[in-house]
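The following block was generated as part of the benchmark described in Methods. Ligand: iron/sulfur cluster.
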Amino acid sequence: MTEADQVASETFKVRVPASYLSLIDWQDVDDPIRRQALPSARELEFLDGELKDPIGDAEHSPVPRVIHRYPDRALLYPTYICSMYCRHCFRKEAVNEQGAGYSLAAIEPALRYFAGATELREVILSGGDPLTLADGQLRELREHLEAIPHLRMIRVHTRVPVTLPTRVTPGLVEALKSKLMICVVTQYNHPREITAEAREACRLLRGAGFMLLNQSVLLAGVNDSVEVMRELCQELVYSLGAKPYYLHHCDLTRGISHFRTSIDRGLEIMRALRGYISGLCLPTYVLDLPGGYGKIPLGPNYVETRDGEQWSFATYDGDIRAYREILRHLPTNGKDHE
Ligand code: SF4
């Protein structure tokens, strides 16, 4: 580690589980596992326009530990502690500044807010990493959420099955089992993270009947190649049974510019995947707009031209094909009628 890397490690939290460290190829200074885990001097470079709060969390926080951005779902931070502090984390500075863990007292205002927000259907446990909670704490939190009658789903956003998969035990799974639908959303970013332990963790989660999804972050030097992304997306489905849900364009977070690719590169990768791998393996490529305006699906676009009912589309392998829309009646006022 250089002296500047050392300064970065004193500025931002560092924690890497031994099992994740063991995945690093120490011969390769640009190893993709190492890039995600070990601090770099480049984290201290803040570019013009980068933001401390890149997706406007603060503007959408009605009570402490809650982000309510979309009508029917809200985020809860049960803890700000993570099993690993990812170098590319988009909430890097929030996670760095807030060291608080879980307590019922800390989340009581959030529970009261959720009970009053009758339009909510999903609570998303994020953070921090919710699976760093002890089994008893998870059970307590799950029971309090279950008692809110309008909630239908608890979503758990976690890197634990990636960075510390042995933490996913039968006890943890039992603590999460609920009369509500449980959805676990992991964050695998590279195929080498899909280890035997990760497979076992995901097997336990699926065995409990939980929905299993994955959101990856498009990261320069980690997965910004067609080959790596193809293998990652296929192995998520075929080895872990985890549906690729989102591929996030790297946010405008300060100090992570060395991970940020161009949108053009992301679109190029998506175009190289569609049609060549199963639709089940394809994530939706999204950009979270700064200011908290939500996610924008980025394409690529397959519509070439449109003239009335006559369309032309680009096929997955590069041909242009015409298509004439045939409708019983012409649409009126934006609505189709029988
Ligand atoms: S586990 Fe999630 S919240 Fe924690 S550092 Fe990694 S990306 Fe950020």
